[in-house]
Amino acid sequence: MQFHICSIVIFCFWTVYLMIAYWTHKQQICSMPAPFHGDSLGLWSNTITLVNIISALLYFITWYKVKKIRGAHFFKNNTKIFTSIAIIIVVEVTSWFISSILIDLSEIYVITERQPPFHYVACLFVSSGIAVKCVVYY
């Protein structure tokens, strides 16, 4: 539990550090990665990608462990547990993962002047994940 809280706090401080350390005065279009200037966008996006890979791995391990003890009498609702884990992986982790991968790829393959529209498209996945979050957790 303490590791989880510490990792969240560290990630939050890392995000704020990137926004402040790489800040430059410029006109910008409002989008998810807009607060990140210069190299900070790549660093932040790579961090998000790493966090999502670790999250997906932890969800998969949890799913596997639950599946392994499937025969236990106290897990009468195995199907609901598997379905819940699968939905959370698809909606939560995948939406952020796809967006961060698209932002990473835009830093490599898209010229700087055309990145803002590409970032809007990339952020649609995150926005969709956020929009359906209440349904997923319900």
Automatic annotation (TrEMBL):
Predominant cellular place of this UniProt entry's protein: membrane
Alphabetical UniProt keywords: Membrane, Transmembrane, Transmembrane helix
Residues spanning the membrane: 5-23, 43-61, 81-103, 118-136
The keyword Transmembrane appears for this protein: yes
SMART domains: 7TM_GPCR_Srsx (SM01381)
Domain of life the protein comes from: Eukaryota
Intracellular or extracellular location(s): Membrane
Annotated Gene Ontology cellular component terms: membrane
InterPro entries: 7TM_GPCR_Srsx (IPR019424), 7TM_GPCR_Srsx_nematod (IPR047130), GPCR_Rhodpsn (IPR000276)
GO molecular function terms listed in the Swiss-Prot or TrEMBL record: G protein-coupled receptor activity
The keyword Membrane belongs to this UniProt entry's keyword annotation: yes
Protein name: G protein-coupled receptor
Species this chain originates from: Pristionchus mayeri
